[in-house]
Amino acid sequence: MAATSAATLSIGTNVSCGRKVGSLSQSKPFGVRFNSQNSLKSFSGLKAATSVSCESDSSFLGKETSAALRGSIALKAQKENQSYQYHLQPQAAFKVAILGAAGGIGQPLALLIKMSPLVSALHLYDVANVKGVATDLSHCNTPSQVLDFSGASELGSALKGVDVVVIPAGVPRKPGMTRDDLFNINAGIVKNLIEAVADNCPDAFIHIISNPVNSTVPIAAEILKQKGVFDPKKLFGVSTLDVVRANTFVAQKKNLKLIDVDVPVVGGHAGITILPLLSKTKPSVSFTDEEVQELTVRIQNAGTEVVEAKAGTGSATLSMAYAAARFVESSIRALDGDGDVYECSYVQSDLTELPFFASRIKIGKKGVEAFISSDLQGLTEYEQKALEALKPELKSSIEKGIAFANKQAVAA
User: Fold this and answer.
1) What residue ranges are annotated as transmembrane (predicted)?
2) Has 207 been annotated as catalytic?
3) Which of helix, strand or coil describes residue 64?
4) What CATH number has the domain spanning 240-396?
5) Contact 281, 363 (CB under 8 A)
6) φ and ψ of 150, to 5 deg
7) CB 98 within 8 A of CB 147
């Protein structure tokens, strides 16, 4: 979405808001002009859409501004053939910190979060090379103020007063490496960062991206417990990329409009622990046994697909940044009072016998509000077998993370 000096968002007949969006001013109210008799269907921020509606709150608009947009649509119903303008003012009110902001994921993630008019401050932290990233990003004319923090001595300052902490810090996967190969390095990084979060912003939503997520989220939980500030409703493992990939691959395979596709992905965030529930795909679509097998394996191995394609130069950074930005945006919408926010995430859960499990959840102002247990009901035979098969590996990863955190506590 371009940000220029213009302040009007124009939408014409049967126009995708992704194609005919004019601009979003960073400081002035912006208007929405309706020039057709078509009702609006959906407007959802980072998600492309073929039409615009107010059935759910906008990803870029807060609760009050979304209500105003609804009111403008009601007004339109009374003025069938008249063009009119209604002014809306997004309220930038939330502070976000990215820990690892100078890295391959951190930089594009920071750019995407900078685009949100709901973010008032964006704190960028890394051990080095973050000042240039922050300076570059600060030139974008969107509401949030960008501040840089470098090195351990400034970590606490980066976290003071923030509402959402996002942690992509760590080393990326290289060809031949598994997520477990990353464990020894990234586990220590996550431990140190979470200790700082516990000391400086214990009430913030915490988004863990650093792999292996199946282990780093349990590590974070144990560190927060040791600090006496653990709130399981506010600790999230970002598994959104699995959903993004599942939606993309299914839409391509079945020739569906991507905006319409929603595939819940449960389990964990590595290899066979990633289980796309293709039988729960919306809109409802049938798959052959061969298609189920092919799609499931591709979704599970999509990270390796990127690593191999980059031939030693990196792992999934851009798609991961997009997926993480989507999850951050959902969290901010929930904090802003949107009562209809659902995402898949790897969290402390009682849906299975495992202490942590990825599933679709409802997010509210205080974090996880509900688990969507119906997704695990009525599974196909293939999905049920896959669910049972993933549990031992996921259990092992969870226990590995917990053991690491407890060992560190004893050593300290």
Assistant:
1) none
2) no
3) helix
4) 3.90.110.10
5) no
6) -130, 135
7) no
The domains of the chain are located at: 8-88, 94-237+397-411, 240-396
Q: Do 94-237+397-411 and 240-396 fold alike per CATH? A: no
Residue 182, Cα to own-chain centre: how many angstroms?
Answer: 22
Place of tokens 């968002």: 9
Would you give the DSSP letter of residue 215?
H
Structure token pair of residue 260: 């319409």
Average pLDDT by stretches of 10, the chain with 412 residues: 36 34 37 40 37 40 51 54 48 93 97 96 97 98 96 97 97 71 90 98 98 96 98 98 98 95 97 97 96 98 93 91 98 96 98 98 98 97 98 98 89 64
CA distances from 294 to 250, 280, 297 (A): 11, 17, 5
Report the C-alpha gap between 95 and 80 in whole angstroms.
41
Fold of the 94-237+397-411 domain: Rossmann fold (3.40.50)
Structure token pair of residue 102: 């100078």
Tell me the backbone φ, ψ of residue 292, rounded to 5 degrees. -60, -45
User: In the chain, how many H helices and how many E strands?
Assistant: 11, 14
